[in-house]
Amino acid sequence: DLAYNYRNRASLYYQTGQYLNAIDDFNESIRIDLLYKGENSERISNSYNNLANIYMLLGSVELSYEYLIKTLSIQKEIYGSSKTVELATTYNSIGKYWKRKQQYPKALANYHQALNCMRASVGSQHPEVVPIYINFIALFTETAEYDSANYYLNKAEKLQREVSELPTKRLGLLVSQRAKAQLRTGNTSMSIATMQESITIYQEAAGLKHPQLSDVFQELAAIYLVQQDYEAALEAAQQALVSNSVAFTSSDVLQNP
User: Fold this and answer.
1) Element (H, E) at 234
2) What pTM was estimated for this model as a whole?
3) Measured on CA atoms in the order 94, 164, 15, 246, is the torsion positive or negative?
4) Nearest residue to 242 via CA among 219, 209, 201, 196
5) Own/partner pairs for 38-44, CB < 8 Å, 24+ apart?
6) Which of 42, 132, 188, 249 is 20 to 30 Å from 225 by CA-CA measure?
7) Rounded distance, CA 15 to CA 4, Å?
8) How far is 24 from 27, CA to CA, in rounded Å?
9) Is 255 exposed, middle or buried (0-12, 13-18, 19+ CB in 10 A)?
10) Could you report the per-residue pLDDT of 153-170, keeping only the tens digit for each?
């Protein structure tokens, strides 16, 4: 199966960041599959979806959207009225596109479609429902609709804690979002405590180095700076550097205070 071989190599290129090579091979697999599988093939749909993801990573947002629409069109032909994980994933990606364009009603409509499809396919208590909730949080935070953002934040954190007893990066993200919500309402002391909880979760889930862990330390440093607690601000800023750099370690902080 020549198309299968091209697609496998494309996936390898994709995973290793060789995006232009991946694009060439995905397109070649699509060309072959169109000849032998027809237009409404699940394999072609998957290849279109991979191309959409690659073009988004490359910053070619409009090309990404074009391939998402192609993906959705084929999925609707394949699955008909069924609500599937695949459809949920595509609607979610289209929602992100519209959010990036600041077309919030369109983004919201696609997030609702994604949520409906995911719930119908795997149930409302499945861990993959959480990322869709997170997209709602991001949208409503961006539009300053904080009550709605908090509604989905509470649902997301509750579900994440129910589906996993172990600390996860996703839970760390949600707890850090709760800290930001507390900060918006002026509850600084509670926000600091919640950020510390988020830091602990991230460290248990991902170790001492993770970009999102660095973000929490930066938020913490900013709060301490406003409070004029310069020693605590410096320590948090140094930890942000440590957690975001493979080359920079805690010993470097000691040597370069």
Assistant:
1) helix 230-244
2) 0.86
3) positive
4) 209
5) 39/74, 40/74, 40/77, 40/78, 41/74, 42/74, 42/78, 43/3, 43/4, 43/7, 44/74
6) 249
7) 16
8) 5
9) exposed
10) 999 999 999 999 889 999
